[in-house]
Amino acid sequence: MVSYNWKWFIEYTHPTQAHMHGVEHFVYSGQTAFQKVEIVDTEFFGRCLILDGKIQSAEHDEYIYHETLIHPAMTMHPAPKRVMIAGGGEGAVLREILKHPSVEEVLMVDIDQEVIELCEKYLPRWNAGTYHHDKVKIVFEDARKYLAESTEQWDVIFMDLPEPLENSPCYMLFTREFYRLVKERLRGSGIIALQAGNLNIRLMECHGAIYNTLKTVFQHVDSYGAYIPSYDTKWGFMCASDFFNAQDFPAGRIDSRLQERGMNDLQYYDGLTHQHLFTLPKDLRRLRAAELRIIEDDDPLTTY
Amino acid sequence: MVSYNWKWFIEYTHPTQAHMHGVEHFVYSGQTAFQKVEIVDTEFFGRCLILDGKIQSAEHDEYIYHETLIHPAMTMHPAPKRVMIAGGGEGAVLREILKHPSVEEVLMVDIDQEVIELCEKYLPRWNAGTYHHDKVKIVFEDARKYLAESTEQWDVIFMDLPEPLENSPCYMLFTREFYRLVKERLRGSGIIALQAGNLNIRLMECHGAIYNTLKTVFQHVDSYGAYIPSYDTKWGFMCASDFFNAQDFPAGRIDSRLQERGMNDLQYYDGLTHQHLFTLPKDLRRLRAAELRIIEDDDPLTTY
Amino acid sequence: MVSYNWKWFIEYTHPTQAHMHGVEHFVYSGQTAFQKVEIVDTEFFGRCLILDGKIQSAEHDEYIYHETLIHPAMTMHPAPKRVMIAGGGEGAVLREILKHPSVEEVLMVDIDQEVIELCEKYLPRWNAGTYHHDKVKIVFEDARKYLAESTEQWDVIFMDLPEPLENSPCYMLFTREFYRLVKERLRGSGIIALQAGNLNIRLMECHGAIYNTLKTVFQHVDSYGAYIPSYDTKWGFMCASDFFNAQDFPAGRIDSRLQERGMNDLQYYDGLTHQHLFTLPKDLRRLRAAELRIIEDDDPLTTY
Amino acid sequence: MVSYNWKWFIEYTHPTQAHMHGVEHFVYSGQTAFQKVEIVDTEFFGRCLILDGKIQSAEHDEYIYHETLIHPAMTMHPAPKRVMIAGGGEGAVLREILKHPSVEEVLMVDIDQEVIELCEKYLPRWNAGTYHHDKVKIVFEDARKYLAESTEQWDVIFMDLPEPLENSPCYMLFTREFYRLVKERLRGSGIIALQAGNLNIRLMECHGAIYNTLKTVFQHVDSYGAYIPSYDTKWGFMCASDFFNAQDFPAGRIDSRLQERGMNDLQYYDGLTHQHLFTLPKDLRRLRAAELRIIEDDDPLTTY
Fold first, then answer.
1. How many CA atoms lie within 13 A of C102 on its CB side?
2. Cα torsion at C134, C140, C146, C152 (round to 10°)?
3. Which value does ipTM take for this structure?
4. Which fold has domain D8-56?
5. Parallel, antiparallel, or unpaired: how do β-strands A154-160 and A186-198 relate?
6. pTM strictly above 0.90
7. pLDDT of A164-177, one tens digit each?
8. Does CATH place domain C62-290 in 3.40.640.10?
9. At what angle do helices D271-278 and D251-260 cross, to 10 degrees?
10. How many of the other CB atoms lie within 10 Å of CB of B148?
11. C95 touches chain D (CB under 8 A)
């Protein structure tokens, strides 16, 4: 029957849970030194980047993920100048960070040069030329190693990493020891923000454990979430610092800052959205609180 | 390979989008006078009720849908006494409504008696015996016909209906003419609340159209949303009245009312959750505003 | 989209190969002491019996499997009187065996009484009342144990067993030691016939190994195959004896015997079909010959 | 879970029947003037060519389809010199035809030049350089138009066409009028051979109708079948002529001719295989006989 779609990408989140994405075109498929990369065109979500079988971002809704990761931390900070990213290869985080006019330098430390080259070639809307922006510097290295060996200080550090699948390149970037190192590299009023796992009520161990772990290092930890259609789930994020309380940050001040910075044309983020993001429903707060695990180097977290 | 699950329920939301639920046990399957009914047990979400191929509610997360539909309207109303429901066969709405101590009478008008009998038999946790509660009355009839012929007045009217699939029993309960009839049956300070379609950014026509249609009838319309894991998406709701502005309703007052009513053990809803629900992200506000359609009897809405 | 089927049984034969069967109704699902049992109704193949995730037989084409297993051996034998079956719970083998008028006694030894009770209840067309036929005796026991302890002699012994999945009840019924035992229980002109694994060119280890193993015990071993639509593959069978050469058995004599026995209304089997079954294509003969394994008790065969 | 395959090609044969092929790499995807083309690499069957959503041939088993189509007709003919093919773009039919040493000229008439170019680039094992063989001539045209306008005579004409899907380029090459035209272009002892539809017992309308239609034109029509693993079904073929009776053609003579022609290293075809192919089981003979349709230009056949 010609009306059936016959090419599919099936993303499993559990042995009994999967999402089927009809694919128009498998654009690229390969294996870098670190991960399997697929780039596919779907009718529903446009072009998608898939690493190790998990959709990382999709053309039609990547703005949700990237604005949610970047703008709360950047907007609460009164004048972020020096920004570092661990991971973030697609370049969309660069694109969002550079919208804040105070930014003077952005450093991206991503272990996988091949992914960045593929993104430059196949995902130009994501990075929008920012790899070559004057303020941007890219280093291909393990972010933990880089931070350990450097003494630079940053206003905001973002962790834009895939999920810590077993044997993935990033599972040692979710531990208490690593977050302590991050904190040492933050200026006094610095903030860390990161993607922080699934908020599906059955799959929240990862989110809860990251929350607890950050709590052992930072005074304020705010966990927040956004529904990402192409992920088929609500996804978790976190920001942490010793100064900023994101949940109580007034929506009006978000809006006025975005206005001052000439950023009121964002697609997803504004004052109301900030309130939405940082007011997790009661069940998620409870599930987060029920998770007691703290992630440490000698017992790192891995997910499905 | 024995580790593969081999029984699946596949829910399509689009020709190129589907969610696969591994099933442990297909408990019941049948066809009532109005719709196809499946009751299945899944490892991931527990027991699920499926009507015409769409999951209506799942054991492990039905509290999200039902608390989100019921409690905002019921809590904003200072003393709801007479409550009516169109649809709502599973009985979970009864269970939630009866938690509000001011309630004196609840009328459920559901067209499909067989579904209610199946729910009583197979979904006892949903209805928790409430079909036979002293304050509850159940009428098996088309809700529109009932409202047209009765002159009773209600404090809150809930529309807990499936999506208006073509040929489904409910697609004439989403029109301007119907909402006008509902308004005539509301007491002066009355509120209507309803499930109101998918909030997936690609599938928001239905939500936007219902919003516009309610706007032609009520002074305040608040559209809101909750991520429902078993639906695999954020789902839309609406409440409308001439008196209550849900978005600005203070979180603190929600919490104190729940306290007064002895309801602070809800799983999902409280003041913070209320804020979360009613602060739709900017993209959804924009997509809602982009939809101009008003639904009328002679051009009813049907969905995929 | 209402036109999509939403209930599926997915049968995996390999991590990258699966067949999807749209299901109308999941009739029964349970776990006996020995295996998982599903009985489902499909639009395409009618009712199906599934053990441990593998279709055993389907209403619309079970005649192919059962006639192919039973009639070559029974028809080549000039007057089979005493017939034994190991397995065969559905009862369709009884139905076919009893068509041969010389039969005086049929013994079925099946380990799983519950499966037979389910088949009597749910698959009446398969067994057609034969469980209670005068000539039939059923014993619920492990067939190997039974044969070891009994001294009865049989004209034909059938092995109608599921595939030897790991931990399945039957994987010790495919070994050289077991076949030796079978031979001791056969009368001089006796024949054994059995289902003998997939004939998919990528999945023939099992068939080749059974062939080699039988060769160490019997003078003539004929391997044959029939395409079974509901299995989605060509399936292998074998018959072995010290007297009968099935491949060279003349088609005309098959037809005249069926005629004499009043059996010319079979659906699948006749002289031409016999020729078809026993003339395996060259590639399968080669692949069978390439498999060198002999199955022994201390190294039994298990399949995917 | 990394062990799941996440890229799939799903081939539907019916709204409730589908086969899932895990894909390693989607090699090529495009749309020619006539059809959608996919070339994929699978772990199980190697490289596959897919036209309009249907697998045409797979690396690991294409020899079955191509030997079955070509060698019965070519071997029964005592000295085929001039051979024509309608369709056959992959080139594997050329490869097989050229094995017969008597062949002097092979003409391939295929409507879709782009498919042939893709096959030359991506399927070199299929065509094995034969597109450029001295004896081979390729014309890009509709085969029916070519035959109508030419007066050349052929010893064997092969129809290697996809299924007659609605709007496919080939559905007018299955009619009585077309077969009459073919007959006019055959030398006196000429033979036509063709692929002739699915032999799944539920999907045999097409095969039966082609059989009836050829019967109105040729004195001998033999329908035959081979199980093709990558098709997941037994597939039908036919050969027709006024002289050759394939079913009764002695196996020994097949083997001696192959020997004389230096062709005893074929993978699939020999005397025994010939017997196997031309002895359709009784149920298929009955289903073929039950189909009464004759295909004519003003009522052409289309399939699912």
1. 16
2. 0
3. 0.92
4. Spermidine Synthase; Chain: A, domain 2 (2.30.140)
5. parallel
6. no
7. 777 677 888 999 99
8. no
9. 140
10. 12
11. no
